[in-house]
Design brief:
By secondary structure, the protein is of the alpha/beta class. It is built from twelve helices and nine strands. Helix 10 links the parallel strand 8 and strand 9. The two termini are 25 Å apart.
Length: 279
């Protein structure tokens, strides 16, 4: 745990093995490049990275940082302060507290990708690249979708019958996560703060000058936003995974790993090694 932006933040760090693939020298000089993983909103936590991509990407030669967003996982849950700028401020303060001075590579899942884009807009000199899975920059169209999902969750999850249906259809573990999400939405202003966030202009988004990777599931509605992202950020490499849904990170971690590592090598000039072992 560290204190950043006035709250306690739970972080996990994985360093590349000194004698493993990449030799631990994937960044500037003798320092490995730093990859910061940002999880999604409401029902997610750093666990979705820890059990999928964190170790394989560290084994490939990257220093991997993960953290629980405010209100999520083991991080502190303040009652208010859940606008996009609050999440960006948390990330900035966390990197400062950890004395990360080189530009970082940001990898965000779902709304975690939006936080990554928001950070790149406000701190362009501290970002080397942005990779987003099933996500979008903070456009009005994307934030409207986020607001609708939060509204549905706020309305649905307090209902015992809804939780019973989730348990019956998707298992008790998923139902426990849904229950915890409902408790967070009930005890914080997240569902009000996030949709009311101040948003950057199209020009500010387009000013992001680093390489961008966007991964989508072909069966997810988020893929509809891909053309708009490319119009704003023409340097974007967009990849659509056939047959996949919004849960592509959890469902296809090996495919995501291969795509991210290839893009880091080809577009970002990062010396990373492909890892044969599955996540």
């Amino acid at each position: 745990m560290i204190r950043a932006n006035g709250i306690e933040v739970h972080i996990e760090r994985l360093d590349p093995p000194a004698d493993g693939p990449g030799g631990g020298n994937a960044g500037r000089g003798d320092r490995p490049a730093t990859l910061v993983m940002i999880h999604g909103m409401a029902s997610d936590s750093l666990a979705s990275w820890y059990f999928t991509l964190a170790k394989p990407l560290a084994d490939a030669g990257l220093r991997v940082l993960m953290y629980d967003l405010r209100g999520h996982g083991h991080s502190q849950r303040p009652p208010t302060g859940y606008a996009l700028d609050d999440f960006v401020d948390d990330l900035s303060a966390m990197l400062t507290e950890l004395d990360v001075t080189d530009p970082v590579h940001l990898l965000g899942n779902s709304f975690g990708g939006t936080i990554a884009f928001g950070y790149a807009i406000r701190h362009p000199d501290r970002v080397a690249s942005v990779a987003a899975i099933e996500s979008s920059p903070p456009t009005r169209a994307w934030m409207a979708r986020v607001a609708r999902r939060l509204d549905r969750a706020t309305d649905l999850l307090p209902r015992p019958e809804a939780l019973a249906q989730i348990s019956a259809g998707r298992g008790e573990r998923v139902a426990r996560r849904a229950r915890a999400t409902g408790e967070m939405l009930a005890t914080t202003t997240l569902a009000r703060d996030l949709p009311a966030s101040a948003l950057p202009s199209s020009a500010q988004i387009s000013a992001i000058g680093v390489p961008v990777l966007c991964l989508y599931g072909a069966n997810s509605a988020v893929v509809e936003l891909a053309p708009a992202v490319v119009r704003l950020l023409p340097q974007t490499r967009s990849v659509v995974l056939p047959g996949e849904k919004h849960t592509v990170l959890v469902d296809r971690p090996e495919a995501v790993r291969r795509l991210v590592l290839a893009w880091l090598r080809e577009e970002c000039s990062v010396e990373v090694a492909e890892v044969a072992t599955a996540p």
